[in-house]
Amino acid sequence: MIRYNQTLYYFFLLGISTYVPWFFFMNAQTYWDFKLRNVTLDNLKIDKKNETLLQGYYTSYMSIASAIPFSLFLIINVFLCKWVSTKIRAIVTQLLVIILFIITTIFVQINTDNWQIGFLIITLSTLAGLNALGSTFAGTMFGVVGHFPSKYISSFSQGQAVSGIFAAIFQILSLWLSTGPIATGLMYFLIGDFIIIFAFISYIFLEKQEFFKYHMKEEVTIKNSDKSVDDTPSSGDNNSVSYMKILVKIWPYGLAMFLTFFITYSIYPVINTRVESEAPRTTEWGDKYFLSVGTFLMFSIGEYVGCLLSRYSSLLDGKPWFSLKSRVISTQTIVLVLLIITTLFIYINTDGWQEYFFFFTLLLAFLINAFSTIFYGALVTITGLFSPNYITAYSAGQALSGIITTLIQILSLWIGMTHETSAFIYFMIGNVGILCSILAYILLEKQKFFKSHVYKHQNIQKKKINTGDVEETKIEYKKIFKIIWPHGLSMFLLYGVTYCVYPSINVLIKSQMAPSPNEWSDKYFTPVATYLSFNCGDYFGRLVAGYFLWPNKKYMLVLITLLRILFIPTFMICNIKSEINILPILIDNDIIYTFLVFLFSTSNGYMCNILYQHVPKIVELQDEEVAMGFLGVFLGLGIAIGSGISVPIVNMLE
């Protein structure tokens, strides 16, 4: 299993190396602007107001010098594959790319002010050579990964997208550290040299793996199953390639690929780099970060997310496509990266671009929640394969995270930390927590007890196929949905009501001691009476559900979750004082309010755990994974719609 994962990582790294020259050349905009600046005005500064002709057209020249050789050598590579072996093409092209990239690195320290046009010609020629070699290598590697299952192709494709993310992050880091253009260029190209050399070494190791050799020879074995196959290429008709026949078969895919890249590179980066922020150039966002974040980073992240989402297409065949392990580790790793980015922004001065920082934060929150949802769905699926005790442990852990967060908030208020310090502690604890969860899952996966539960339904399904009980492994989504829809409806109502009230309405409720100034009403009321009370109740409810599996009737589950709607008007008549609130305040006692929050959250935690434990019992063993996945979908819909309904209610109250 380890060697299969190593192959995935090797293809991922090789995918990164294919686009490193292009992205690093493109993102080193500060360096190129410096090299092509108007040297008669200032030898140190890059003056955008006096942009030279070379600076203005460099991006267009770069795109042309990249696109033409890249496309031309992709075509040539189709014919080269017949005459030149895969190993020679991969190794020779990578060696030449390393040499050209080292030459580019050396030019960073050479003064080219007196021969800028000559330097530009050498740079574009080098770039053309890099893209010609890079396209040959990319075409070769796509031919290689085509011999492997789809997840290896996806890994290579994801690596190509990640190279753009790396380049954009390095660009943002260099702007943040305020490194000079020479230091920036040197950093880019040295990192590029290191990545390409590392990828070159990885390919050599990859070629030696038996797993790699098996897949590379598999097609030959299939085609010549009735003939003896030796290590020498066959001659005559067996070695002929019908290019026209292949083209007729794949032309719709080729046309789709052509249109995709034609539209993309008609806009990016030539037009995108000319777009300016609406923020003044005097602000850090408008002057430094807009292009790096708004164009390069967003494009690369979007491309990577697209590569990940493309793997959902196999769901159309009704077959599982993405292992639980991959879902858990990949999503948590991405969430960790996004949370680290959020942590870095704590000490960046955003006063001059608050609106953009706000929207960027919302984007980060959106991505974190999107990947967390996938992670949550995978974990719900896994716990559904275990006994109720383990489901309760997972469910209780979810509630405990809220208690820990609230206690940290209360502690920071008590100590009197600054906003930056408290935020830094929050996010650092979050980073450490996610990192620990990734390590915990890796260790968990190695346990025999874990493997026996997670994979037993797969083994049973395989046994049925082997004995002829089933003809294929298609998942009957409609059948599973019909069985679990009452539980799904209950989960939807449960979380719909919860997020309709908490936290949007709860945070509007004030202490009975307000507005008189005191520490309880000003500082501690909301963290203790709302957040801590809710999370403790949620935790308590999940623990109790581990001992009392009631109700067990479908109609009772739906009825109880429907009755929780009564909590909405109950909290609306609590102590919410505003000019537009026309509802009477009937509950203004802090103790009664705290108890109501505790009761409200206890019912949430209790019913959530009950539903978790019921669903695996009412479906067949091989359907547990999909059934729990459906339950997660209903939960997410409840959160989304409940949060949406809370908006007009809040507007009515405040």
TrEMBL record:
<feature type="transmembrane region" description="Helical">
    <location>
        <begin position="58"/>
        <end position="80"/>
    </location>
</feature>
<feature type="transmembrane region" description="Helical">
    <location>
        <begin position="423"/>
        <end position="444"/>
    </location>
</feature>
<dbReference type="InterPro" id="IPR002259">
    <property type="entry name" value="Eqnu_transpt"/>
</dbReference>
<feature type="transmembrane region" description="Helical">
    <location>
        <begin position="626"/>
        <end position="650"/>
    </location>
</feature>
<feature type="transmembrane region" description="Helical">
    <location>
        <begin position="161"/>
        <end position="179"/>
    </location>
</feature>
<keyword id="KW-0472">Membrane</keyword>
<feature type="transmembrane region" description="Helical">
    <location>
        <begin position="116"/>
        <end position="149"/>
    </location>
</feature>
<feature type="transmembrane region" description="Helical">
    <location>
        <begin position="185"/>
        <end position="206"/>
    </location>
</feature>
<feature type="transmembrane region" description="Helical">
    <location>
        <begin position="356"/>
        <end position="379"/>
    </location>
</feature>
<dbReference type="GO" id="GO:0005886">
    <property type="term" value="C:plasma membrane"/>
</dbReference>
<keyword id="KW-1133">Transmembrane helix</keyword>
<feature type="transmembrane region" description="Helical">
    <location>
        <begin position="329"/>
        <end position="350"/>
    </location>
</feature>
<keyword id="KW-0813">Transport</keyword>
<feature type="transmembrane region" description="Helical">
    <location>
        <begin position="483"/>
        <end position="505"/>
    </location>
</feature>
<keyword id="KW-0812">Transmembrane</keyword>
<feature type="transmembrane region" description="Helical">
    <location>
        <begin position="586"/>
        <end position="606"/>
    </location>
</feature>
<dbReference type="InterPro" id="IPR036259">
    <property type="entry name" value="MFS_trans_sf"/>
</dbReference>
<feature type="transmembrane region" description="Helical">
    <location>
        <begin position="288"/>
        <end position="309"/>
    </location>
</feature>
<comment type="similarity">
    <text>Belongs to the SLC29A/ENT transporter (TC 2.A.57) family.</text>
</comment>
<feature type="transmembrane region" description="Helical">
    <location>
        <begin position="555"/>
        <end position="574"/>
    </location>
</feature>
<dbReference type="Pfam" id="PF01733">
    <property type="entry name" value="Nucleoside_tran"/>
</dbReference>
<feature type="transmembrane region" description="Helical">
    <location>
        <begin position="391"/>
        <end position="417"/>
    </location>
</feature>
<dbReference type="GO" id="GO:0005337">
    <property type="term" value="F:nucleoside transmembrane transporter activity"/>
</dbReference>
<feature type="transmembrane region" description="Helical">
    <location>
        <begin position="250"/>
        <end position="268"/>
    </location>
</feature>
<feature type="transmembrane region" description="Helical">
    <location>
        <begin position="92"/>
        <end position="110"/>
    </location>
</feature>
<protein>
    <recommendedName>
        <fullName>Equilibrative nucleoside transporter</fullName>
    </recommendedName>
</protein>
<feature type="transmembrane region" description="Helical">
    <location>
        <begin position="7"/>
        <end position="25"/>
    </location>
</feature>
